[in-house]
Amino acid sequence: MSTKQIAIDGPAGAGKSTIARMVADRLGFIYIDTGAMYRAAALYLLRGNIDPADERASAAAVAGADIRLVNENGNQKILLNGEDVTGQIRTQEVGAAASLSSRYRAVREKLTGLQREIAEKENVVMDGRDIGTTVLPDAQLKIYLTADASVRAKRRYDQLAAKGTAGLSPDEIEAEIRARDRQDMERKNSPLRKAEDAVLVDSSDLSIDEVCAAILKEYQKVCR
Ligand code: DC
Asked: How far apart are the C-alpha atoms of 84 and 78, rounded to whole Å?
């Protein structure tokens, strides 16, 4: 492996994308949001009226979708069949559908292949659910970033409310987050779990800057 790889996994709303982006900026690496890829696949299913809980239909449809992450002037965009869907994938509906369709092996294999291709060419900070366990098992640094479900729900609510797209109450979001945790952790294919060699970071009582500093410190240790 000639590239540098940092894997950040954890449950929904733990702050993975904010932190991963910051760490990538600080190190001059590319940030790869693998959840955005699963969300784009789910959006494709929803648009085609395909049930994301139907394995055969989901696998067949996603096989034909062109999903790409591109970096433009430091901003990451997700393209679905050439269309920029970066904004459209950030809804509860798409997230819930992504949690369903990401259970399927064929869907995972397609997106995992794309993720590895990027990491072979660029130094990356990649976040998701299975990066340390499956996608990049040889990453120099693996972080398992988590926080209490109530803290994650509050953060997710504030994020959605700031964009005017909350739709649900904080309690409803917490219930949704707990259901998503269960689904992501209990699935058969690449369930969310801490890799044995991952460093556990609980961000419940930490600021974004503190989490970022903790991860950079861990990276210094392994990259001496
Ligand atoms: O991180 P997120 O909320 O954008 O992810 C949406 C869903 O995609 C998540 O519930 C599970 C799935 N996912 C996955 O299975 N593996 C990944 N590496 C990233 C996301």
From this structure: 6
9 Cβ closer than 6 Å to some ligand 1 atom: no
Torsion of CA 13, 19, 25, 28, to 10 degrees: -100
DSSP state of 30: E
pTM of the predicted model over 0.90: yes
DSSP letters, 71-110, are EETTEEEEEETTEE-TTTT-SHHHHHHHHHHTTSHHHHHH
CA-based radius of gyration for the chain: 16
- Predicted confidence at residue 1, as pLDDT, reads 60
Q: What is the pLDDT of residues 140-157, one digit of tens each?
A: 999 999 999 999 999 888
Q: Is the CB of 39 under 6 A from ligand 1?
A: yes
Q: How many CA atoms lie within 13 A of 158 on its CB side?
A: 8
Measured torsion, CA atoms of residues 87, 99, 200, 21, in degrees rounded to the nearest 10? -20
What's the gap between Cα 159 and its chain centre? Answer: 16
For the CA of 103, the nearest atom of ligand 1: 15
